[in-house]
Design a protein that fits this description.
The chain is about 25% helix and about 25% strand. Helix 1 packs parallel to helix 2, helix 1 packs parallel to helix 6 and helix 4 packs parallel to helix 5. Strands 1, 2, 3, 4, 5, 6 and 17 form a seven-stranded mixed beta sheet that branches. Strands 8-15-9-10-11 form a five-stranded parallel beta sheet. Strands 12-13-14 form a three-stranded antiparallel beta sheet, with no helix packed on it.
């Protein structure tokens, strides 16, 4: 039986593995069927992680050193997709999609969230090369340059406001004539001179070349008129899909407390409502969705696992 099963190989999961193994746990395995490192591996540059300032390295380069460090302290990794987690008496059963299972005294779930795609032409091609879903991560790359924001909710307008303090102009494209954002958020955006609201419109295409995004074509949904915007930065905020499927039982019910958005309710120590089950990173409530924050969550969760196991002895 494992001391701890970690599900998810992004910054939160890897940091949890590092702290758990360095903290003395002998049987710790991380399960992930994707690219180790998480969403940040798709970024072309990293500038906002403390102590790391090398714009010649990509997100994939950045996370490679994390893996080496974790594995050096004894963390094991198995390339398996987890279907769900079950509580069995005083321990857990981690069930994989092929029907196999493994038992663990504790579980840390760090499966994160996935930004929704808008579906326009060129979105996938230029993702990480001009198309972004994180203004805090990538906004500075467009300092004193115009950018486009797609979305009409609170997040889109909040991120547009953030970008307006960095970029020369921010063009917010929304498919309806009214925004879904809260009135105070909308009012603040409307009062900012360099934020321009473009309603009844969608992104028709993102285009560019080998060096990345060159611009976007904006289509008016009422007239079909196309406007060519020569912006090298496009930020898409059309929602997030929280990767919470492993926390559902066979009947589709969640095994721990969740909020209305499908995020896991945790305390400051990453405890869920189910003893021995911890959550870290974007999956939890109020997550800042930053690498440095996810890493902090992972360390806290691992330290709590160690404390929990000690109390059980």
């Amino acid at each position: 039986m494992l001391d701890c099963a970690i599900i998810g190989g992004g910054p939160a999961g890897l940091t949890a593995g590092l702290y758990a193994t360095r903290g003395g746990l002998q049987k710790v395995t991380l399960f992930d069927a994707g690219v180790l490192g998480g969403q940040i591996t798709k970024s072309s540059e990293i500038e906002n992680y403390p102590g790391f300032f090398d714009n010649t390295k990509t997100g994939l380069d950045f996370m490679e050193s994390w893996q080496k460090q974790c594995f050096a302290f004894g963390l094991k990794h198995e390339y398996k997709k987890v279907a769900r987690v079950e509580k069995v008496e005083e321990h857990f059963k981690v069930i994989f999609d092929n029907g196999e299972a493994i038992e663990a005294m504790t579980v840390i779930v760090a499966t994160g969230s996935t930004p929704r795609r808008a579906g326009f032409k060129g979105e996938d091609e230029f993702f990480g090369k001009g198309v972004s879903t994180c203004a805090t991560c990538d906004g500075f790359f467009y300092k004193d340059k115009p950018v486009t924001v797609l979305g009409g909710g609170d997040t889109a307008l909040e991120e547009a406001f953030f970008l307006s303090n960095i970029c020369s102009d921010v063009y917010v494209v929304h498919r309806r004539d009214e925004f879904k954002a809260a009135p105070p958020t909308l009012d603040r955006a409307m009062r900012k001179e360099n934020i321009h609201l473009i309603t009844n419109s969608v992104i028709d295409e993102a285009y560019g070349g080998m060096m990345g995004l060159d611009g976007v074509k904006i289509k008016n949904t009422q007239t079909d008129e196309i406007t060519d915007m020569a912006n090298t930065g496009l930020f898409v905020f059309v929602g997030l899909n929280v990767n919470n499927g492993v926390l559902k039982d066979e009947n589709g019910d969640f095994i721990c407390e969740m909020n209305e958005q499908g995020q896991v309710v945790v305390d400051l120590k990453m405890n869920t409502s189910l003893k021995g089950l911890f959550v870290a990173g974007d999956l939890r409530i109020d997550a800042p969705k930053q690498v440095v924050s996810a890493a902090g969550d992972g360390s806290i969760a691992a330290l709590q696992v160690i404390s929990y196991l000690q109390e059980m002895q």
